[in-house]
Amino acid sequence: MTEPRQPTELDRIAEEWVDTLCELDPDYRVWLGREGDVTGYGDLSPDGHAAWIAAAQLTLSRLESATALDDVDRVTQADLSAELRLALETSAAGWHLRDLNNIASPAQALRDVYDLMPSESESDWDAIATKLGNLDDALQGYRETLRQGIREGHVPARRQIDEVIAQAERHASDTGFFVTLAGDTAPENLPVSLRTKLRTNADEARVAYSDFAAFLRDELAPASHDRDGVGRDLYQLHSRRFLGATVDLDETYEWGLDELARMTDEQERIAARLCGGSVADAVAFLATDSSRKIHGTDALQAWMQDLSDTAIRDLDGTHFDIPVEMRKLECRIAPTKDGGIYYTGPSDDFARAGRMWWSVPEGVTEFDTWRETTTVYHEGVPGHHLQISQAVYNASQLNTWRRQLAGSSGHAEGWALYAERLMAELGYLDDDGDRFGMLDGQRMRAARVVLDIGVHLGKQRPDGRGVWDADYALEFMRSNVLLDEEFIRFEVTRYLGWPGQAPSYKIGQRIWEELRRECERREGESFELKKWHKRVLDIGGTGLDTLRKAILGEW
């Protein structure tokens, strides 16, 4: 273990910012695995947002007046300052007044937190029950902010509102999440009084989402519009947010087209080897291969766990140094059924291990290993689990903000795509089916760069027949992603409502790979990949501009 670093003024500012976030929004305590009251929610009303802005301005002022004593300080100061400045710019643009989409807005976050809340003890379930009783107040505050958006002309597109209405109505149904949580999910041995409280408050939460759906339908939808693109100025803010870097959007769009063509060419060549046909023929061919099928969620969970455990054993000591605390990665089937696959990090003490979650849609019982082998590497090892757990493990060097909250989608998802390509480089995807599956995912991510920038900036379509819009976006995705129509529609809606996020995967991968090549160029024969991996992961999550400065010493 490295000798503990003596905390500096900048460490204290960052720690106090984490404490402030926990006070403003108790869900941060859940995410961090901290002790303290988790039964409330953050104030989503305009007053709550004003309190957050005031706290951010104060912290930014303190950061700017502090003196960095070493490289660790320089990363903290540069990255937290950049994050807060961008948040203030985004607030000034009124984004919080229209923050509603089909995947990552308060409408989802208010429910999603229950997936991470402890549920082992009676007191854990009492906290869950109490929190359910506070959900209506949180949704009312959110409605106040969206109403202010209506008054000021900052409203989401109708497409996003319709999607969230459907989600809210599912939560409000008598077979929805809250009813299931209080019924089938809760232990049978809870005291009668607690079970009654749980069911009563779960029903209140269900009704709260029903009321929220009515607000969206009756007030927000009539004030909305059909413009899916947010325009260059807003998009640039979101691109910076998700990358932690500023990129030339027009150059990146052209690069995305080239990258998509490269992915398509490689996939077509493998398809020819697999079956002598097209990409669609190869998908059909692989779908009939019983050796690549998993039946049932129990078998899926066991397969995920075995593949993950094997990767940890193989990579430890060869291409990574994996401390014992990080060698436990739990693969789980998520309690929700929306089709997502995601990772949640360990608590600071590793009492809650890192977890890979698979949210299996209702009725889905068969799974293709050729599609998902690369997914396990992406979410687990050497992907998100190594990246996020390494920062948590580095408690002796990194303050809590650096370990648990810092970073960007471009850093995280870019690393995970780098990890997929690394596993191909190391021979773990030599099987043509597995490599075809990896390319299928990477092709989709390249397509998203082009689609996302194209729609939101109103660029000319690649076919030269006008300007990007939602209909062409669907057509474009259908031609590049061989998945079912429901998935494609959900994904395109996600891109339209969450600008800048989807491209951050592939753009982040580009920046990670460029950084490695630059280090290889500078270091020549002395370059060692395992040492480089440790060096970059020890920094923890950052924006990609900060990462580059830290690794190349370009302060």
How would you portray this structure in words?
This protein is mostly helical and 555 residues long. The protein has two domains: 9-226, no CATH class; 239-504, no CATH class. The protein is 64% helix and 4% strand. The protein has 24 helices and five strands. It has helices spanning 9-24, 27-32, 46-65, 71-92, 106-112, 122-133, 135-152, 158-172, 177-185, 192-220, 232-243, 249-275, 279-287, 297-315, 369-379, 384-393, 400-405, 409-425, 432-457, 470-480, 485-497, 503-523, 529-538, 544-552, and strands at residues 293-295, 329-333, 341-344, 354-358, 366-368. The strands form two sheets. Strands 2-4-3 form a three-stranded mixed beta sheet. A two-stranded antiparallel sheet has the order 1-5. Helix 1 runs antiparallel to helix 3 and helix 9 runs antiparallel to helix 10. The longest helix is centred in the middle third of the chain and has 29 residues, at 192-220. The radius of gyration is 23 Å and the shape is globular. The chain starts with 8 loop residues before the first helix and ends with a helix. The model has no long low-confidence stretch (mean pLDDT 95).
Write the layout of secondary structure elements.
Blueprint: H1 9-24, H2 27-32, H3 46-65, H4 71-92, H5 106-112, H6 122-133, H7 135-152, H8 158-172, H9 177-185, H10 192-220, H11 232-243, H12 249-275, H13 279-287, E1 293-295, H14 297-315, E2 329-333, E3 341-344, E4 354-358, E5 366-368, H15 369-379, H16 384-393, H17 400-405, H18 409-425, H19 432-457, H20 470-480, H21 485-497, H22 503-523, H23 529-538, H24 544-552
